Amino acid sequence: MTAPEERGSVPFLLPGSPPMRDTVAGWDHWRVTRHHFVPAPRLSLAEWRRLSPRKRTLHDLHRAATHANLPLLQTPMTKAVTKLLHGRIMTNALKRKPTTRAGVMVTGGGYQGKTETTCEILATFEDMWLQLHQQLNPAAVPGSRDLHVPVAYVQTPVTAKPKSTCKAILNFYGAPMHPRMDLPDLIRQVAASLHDHGTRALVLDDITRLRMHRADDQDTLDLIRAFMSMHVTLVLVGVDIPGSGLLREGRRDPHTGQVIFSPSKHGQVHGLEATQTERRFDLVELDRFRYDTPAGMSAWIDHLTGVEDQLRLLNAPDGMLTDGRMPEYIFARTNGVVGLLERLIEDGCQEAIDSGAECLSEALLEGIAITVNGAPGRDADAGEVPDVPGPAKVRAEPGKHRRSRNTVFDDLGPSASTGS
Ligand SMILES: Nc1ncnc2c1ncn2[C@@H]1O[C@H](COP(=O)(O)OP(=O)(O)O)[C@@H](O)[C@H]1O
Ligand SMILES: [Mg+2]
Predict the structure, then answer these.
(1) Which of 293, 297, 301, 310 has its Cα between 20 and 30 A from that of 17?
(2) Which value, to the nearest 10 degrees, does the dihedral of the CA atoms of residues 334, 335, 341, 343 take?
């Protein structure tokens, strides 16, 4: 048996299973622990060689954990989203007037960081808000539950309908649900949950799973209108929102760039009184990196510098990811999509450690297939899984390989583990 103090020397293995953010408790656990991971110390090859075999194994495990838990890095794109989203939520939260709050839509392709960026911004807001209110809901009604939940994070169910979307929200709060509740009942219950918990921002992630060409289009739009009457900042996150049909009824305000939806023509929307005000959304895009302008290239190289700084390989020269052809090569492999870069780097580091190379090179990365097919929690039909460019040898092949590349090259990756 290992002595407790020895077991205690692996603080990088956080206790319990990874937090699911789709309930109040899960979200809160994630929010509080999200910066707790401590990366492995930087050791030179000589220092690593001086470790005892046991310490070496532990250190290697810690390095693997470090590469599997790469932090979010600020990019010019996340900066733009943060500025708008944080600003909007804060102003709305401080508003005392009973007017409708403008919402925010965050759009972008799959694996471009929409979910993680949005969650980080909302968690930062919540940290601040709770501090401001010293964990007390200032609007708590005497006699009601005074659990303060400033942020509600909800993932839109696959093949979502208005009722299942409401149920997902109620599920976040652990609110009681009766199987026979109809849509107006469910919406009233959602309104009550948001109000009783002092919720300021409601995130509906992957909103583009709501197919806007289906029969319940109008229901969905009315549902969104109803949510916006609830004095929360509604944050809708999705893949290619402009192309999804969600904005079909909206028009652009040429001055502010906001999308405006007219008030519903019905006096009542799902049993809630429809206010006669229009609904406004800021639409912000979280783009991928681009490699076609000097500014774009230098932002990409800055990002690679930031990633390289997180890696713990023992034979890695400075500029491993940024010198020579590497930025261009890595861009070609990932299209500048942060999530694909993360997959490539994580699996590349695993291979670099396993093979003893302890360094990332173009030759090593050529052997790594980026595997994102069948990633849990993603709906490929809703565009949440982007196209993945193959290694150069594949890209050079004539078109016939292009379609089948994902299945063909899954087998070639030395490390097929998805790690997520
Ligand atoms: N700014 C960033 N810096 C580094 N890695 C990031 C960044 N944003 C996202 N990632 C990583 O990319 C992966 C995909 O991000 P995610 O938010 O799930 O994308 P999306 O919701 O757009 O599909 C995640 O594993 C995340 O850790
Ligand atoms: Mg997402």
Answers:
(1) 310
(2) -50
